[in-house]
Amino acid sequence: MAASVVSNMLSNSFVFRDWPHYGLRDISTGEESCKSDNPSENKRRRLADTDVEKFIDIEENRNTERKTEGDLSLVMVFLAREKENRKIEDLPPAELDTYLSRFLLSERKKSGEEYKPATLKGIISSVERYLKKRGYSDSIITGQPFAKTRDALKSKQKPLKWLGKGNKPKDAASFDQEEIDLLFRNGVMGIHSPQALINTLWFNNCLHFNIRGGKAHRSLRWGDVVFKTDCNGKGYLEYSAERQKRTRPGDNSLDRRQIKPQIYENLTMPNERNPVSAFKLYMTKRPKETLVDGSPFYLTINHLSKEKLALSGAKWFKSQPMGVNKLNTLMRECAKAAGLDTNKQITNHNAKETLCPDNWPKESSVYQ
């Protein structure tokens, strides 16, 4: 019953039938798709890249709403057991604070097992999100009336973490120097082929600029990373145009990096391991029309024969952007091709974790 009530309150959720309003187009023609007399042709309708990106954004919002709905239903079931029939947003802060603190200390899974600390925190975040949409007078996260709720959450999280409930055995681990050497030694990374070059650029962007997920890489544009020289004539790359991300969504103009991330060239290392050399080569191998600021950074590989690839003027890449699904799985494919440890959790975050492990000397570089 509680779930149905919450579902009605969140009735503005996106549903798949709304999808045609977002302009389905045929990639090959760029025209608006029309229904065909042949049903099989309709099933094979393809979507433009912009349509796919819109769908991903909508799905992310839909998933958030679905989680909010599920978490609220847990709280409402608890309130029903407490003989409380008022809506959450109608409860005064002092009363809601008491209910939420008791909920956190008493709630269990249906099996009787304790929730993980992150799950409890997520439930409170869902309630906060729901109340904020409805103009509630105080914030659970920062408001003084909800100090008891926050204290209850902290008190509950500590013993749960001690019991191992907060552990994440499948977290991505960092790459060590031997594994990075293996990626280059096995030809997975380097500057000898289009795929190896893309892999190397992608890894450099993760490692030095902390660009992680496929969506963040997909939004990277030519001109965001620029080649510069310092007063001593030494070349370096600078990430000068950080785009929206989860921790910096762009709503605060003051929330900017104080120092722009940079990669300096090292002329004592082989070109294949020199990030600046890889970037310069990529510049010469891109089609001329994609060297304009705002063009996609990652381009689709132009699959040419070895003879054509060896030609000085050969363009290794097409003008089309590389797909987000390809970028999402790039690290996993690299690890598989290089024969890295299959027991390690391999995701795009492995490169990010390599960025700054706890025992990593500040003056070190994985390329030295």
UniProtKB/TrEMBL annotation:
<dbReference type="Pfam" id="PF12012">
    <property type="entry name" value="DUF3504"/>
</dbReference>
<keyword id="KW-0597">Phosphoprotein</keyword>
<keyword id="KW-0832">Ubl conjugation</keyword>
<dbReference type="InterPro" id="IPR042838">
    <property type="entry name" value="KIAA1958"/>
</dbReference>
<feature type="domain" description="ZMYM2-like/QRICH1 C-terminal">
    <location>
        <begin position="182"/>
        <end position="332"/>
    </location>
</feature>
<dbReference type="InterPro" id="IPR021893">
    <property type="entry name" value="ZMYM2-like_C"/>
</dbReference>
<keyword id="KW-1017">Isopeptide bond</keyword>
<protein>
    <recommendedName>
        <fullName>ZMYM2-like/QRICH1 C-terminal domain-containing protein</fullName>
    </recommendedName>
</protein>
